[in-house]
Amino acid sequence: MEQVAQPTKNGQQLLAQLLAVAYHVLEETKHMNLKPPLRPSSKLFATDAPGSPPRSPETETPQDETPDVNGLAAGFAGTHAQTGQSHLVVIPYSPEEIQDTYTKITMLKTQYMKISAELLEAIKEVGKEAEDDKDAIAKLVARRNQLRKEVYERNLVMKGLIDRLRNLQHSIRLMKGGTAYPPNIIMESV
Predict the structure, then answer these.
(1) To bridge 64 with a disulfide, which of 34, 40, 75, 117 should be the other Cys (CB 3.0-4.6 Å)?
(2) Cα 24 from Cα 67, distance rounded (Å)
C-alpha cells in the first residue's frame, strides 16, 4: 500500500478523528457478548448431577432467572433454542462475524495509534515553536536593552558636551567684560 502525503492537520482535527475511532469501536462492540452463559451446551459443564437429563426451555424455574456474570439472565438464550434441542445458544454470532469484528477493532486500534502519534508530534511541534518563540523574544529583549544602554550613553555624552559649551560661553562673556547671563542668549536646558 502506498501512503499518500497528507496535508498537516491541526489538533482539533486529530482529536475529532480520535473521537470518531472511539465511537466506531463502541458501535462495533455494542451488541457483542462473547462470554458464554453460566450453563453452556456441553454436559461436562452442566450444574446438574452428571446422570440427570438436560433441562428443556419450557420447564425453567425462577432460579434460572438469576443474573450471570454478564448481568444477563441465565435463561436468556433458552428462548432462542431450537425446538427439540435442550441446549442454550452460547454465542449469537458466527465465528466469521466474530473474526470480522475483531478485525475491525484491530483496524480501529491501528488508526487510533496512528492518529495519537500524529497528535503527539503536533503537540511537540507546537511546544518547539513556543520554545523557539521564547528564544527569539529573549534575543529581542537583549537587543532592546543593548540599544537602550547605547542611547543612554550617547545622551550622557551629549549632556556633557552641552555643559561644556555653556561653560565656554560663560567664560567668553566674562573675558569680554559683559555679564555672564545676557538676556538675549537662551540656551536650551537639558
Answers:
(1) 75
(2) 29
Interatomic CA distance for residues 8 and 5, integer angstroms: 9
Predicted local distance difference test score (pLDDT) of residue 75: 43
Q: Which domain holds residue 69?
A: 11-41+62-132
Neighbour tally for 124: CB within 10 Å: 10
Per the CB < 8 A criterion, the answer to whether 38 and 68 are in contact is yes
β-bridge mates for residue 73, sequence order:
67
The pLDDT tens digits for 82-124 are 444 444 444 455 556 656 777 777 888 888 888 888 888 888 8
Q: Is the pTM higher than 0.70?
A: no
Burial of 50 (0-12, 13-18, 19+ CB in 10 A): exposed
Strands (DSSP E) along 2-152, which ranges? none
Residues 25 and 19: their CA atoms lie apart, in Å, by 10
Take residue 125 and report the three cell numbers written for it.
511541534
Query: From the CB of residue 75, how many other CB atoms can be counted at a distance below 10 Å?
Result: 22
Total domain count for the chain?
1
pLDDT band at 16 (very low <50, low <70, confident <90, very high): confident
Kindly compute the dihedral angle of the four CA atoms of residues 22, 27, 28, 31, in this order, to the nearest 10 degrees.
Answer: 140
